Amino acid sequence: MSTAAQPLPANLDRIVQRFKRRSDPKQRYQQLLWYAKKLDAMPEADKTPENKVSGCVSQVYITADLEDGKVWYHGDSDAQLVKGLVALLIQGLNGLTPEEILQVTPDFIEETGLKVSLTPSRANGFYNIFQTMKKKALGFQIATSSQENN
After folding, report:
1. Which of 47, 61, 94, 112 supports an S-S bond with 51, CB 3.0-4.6 Å?
2. What is the pLDDT of residues 122-142, one digit of tens each?
3. Structural domain of 91
4. Is 140 exposed, middle or buried (0-12, 13-18, 19+ CB in 10 A)?
């Protein structure tokens, strides 16, 4: 289980545990590349400035949709390792409510052990991608609560 105050959502916790079992940085890279291969293709039309993650050296795009109160992300990157990070986050956060996503703290990034395997700019990019996904969830939460108050 997560050492964070809030337990991690089940999918994200499973991913963290999978990475924790890999002590070799090379194995962690291979795991990321495996996630990158599994990522659904993102339509070129979604690769717009509004969907671009700022603070990343590579090109990273994230979209989010709210369906039946749950958030569904899509994403892409022009760098395979970063694409793996995007895929990891999408698989870990898809299907959660905006509230559940907003409760996830970035501590899990440390727990994966990836921070030591990534360059500082990639580790920072991973954090920025996560923050972008949380911002999109917050947007849905605000929109939903303002509709309920009308």
Report:
1. 61
2. 889 999 999 999 999 999 999
3. 10-144
4. buried
pTM for the whole structure:
0.91
Percent of the chain whose pLDDT exceeds 90: 75
CA distance linking residue 55 with residue 30, whole number of Å: 24
149 assigned to some structural domain: no
pLDDT in tens, 18-73: 999 998 889 999 999 999 999 999 999 999 999 999 988 899 999 999 999 999 99
Q: Which of 16, 42, 56, 87 is catalytic?
A: 56
Does residue 77 belong to any structural domain of this protein? yes
Domain for residue 51, yes or no? yes
Number of domains in the chain: 1
- The CATH number assigned to the domain holding 19 equals 3.90.1010.10
For residue 33, tell me if it sits in a domain. Answer: yes
pLDDT value at residue 7? 86
Q: Is there a catalytic annotation at residue 56?
A: yes
